[in-house]
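Sat 14:20. Reprocessing the chain from the morning session after the first attempt stalled halfway. Input below, unchanged.
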Amino acid sequence: MSDHREVNLTGVKQNKGVWLVKVPKYLSQQWDKATEKGEVGKITIGKKQGKTEVCFSLNEELTALGAVDEINGTLQVPKDHPFNMHTVGGQTLAVFSQSDTDEISLEGMVVHRAECRPVVSDNYMKLKKLQIKRSTKPQRLSQQLERAVTTVFKPVANHDFNLEYEKKKKSEGKMVRAERQVVLDMLFSAFEKHQYYNIKDLVDITKQPVTYLKEIMREIGTYNSKGAHKSTWELKPEYRHYRSAGEEEEMETA
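Finished this time. Tokens:
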């Protein structure tokens, strides 16, 4: 199976320029709470003393969403977020999107980079204080019991997967190393049917110990650590047309 996917490059023809903006986590969470076609805010672009100033103002409705807290009842998300502009710095950056049908499209090339920062106000300081308290709150708490626990839980039956494992272990017995040539013949025969195998399947086919099998596979095979066939083995190119000793004798006799 191939990992290659087609990419819609309509954005290249349209020559669209996009902004790459880093926003605070709480702001992105507020955006997620907006309705499907709702307005999350407005961006104003102006000039002050010859410098471009950009500011994002969060929609008033979103500042109130989730504002009720057990500690600060009046807690609200900051509304105004000025942009701290950065240069692209000679890098070539692009923005891609993925649809519900897994189609990948190029939205445009990055022409500006910016960091969205909130205006430091009382609301912002309360929000940061609450975030710090939540982050330092322990996930588990110890609790003092008034009396000792007398209930003892004992297993009433063995689990099905344990029984299946014991049954398999008894039927197969302890794996004994076979002669190297015998194991090679079994491996080459298996790889004639399929190109890729994981180590568990090879153990089932050859009935050999894992360590012994891996030792042989390192000599004749290649382990795929990534890609479409991750965590599988395949034969090295020089072994893919190998014939077992028995097959060669048959051909000579014929």
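The beta strands are 7-8, 17-22, 41-48, 51-58, 80-86, 94-98, 104-116, 221-224, 232-235.
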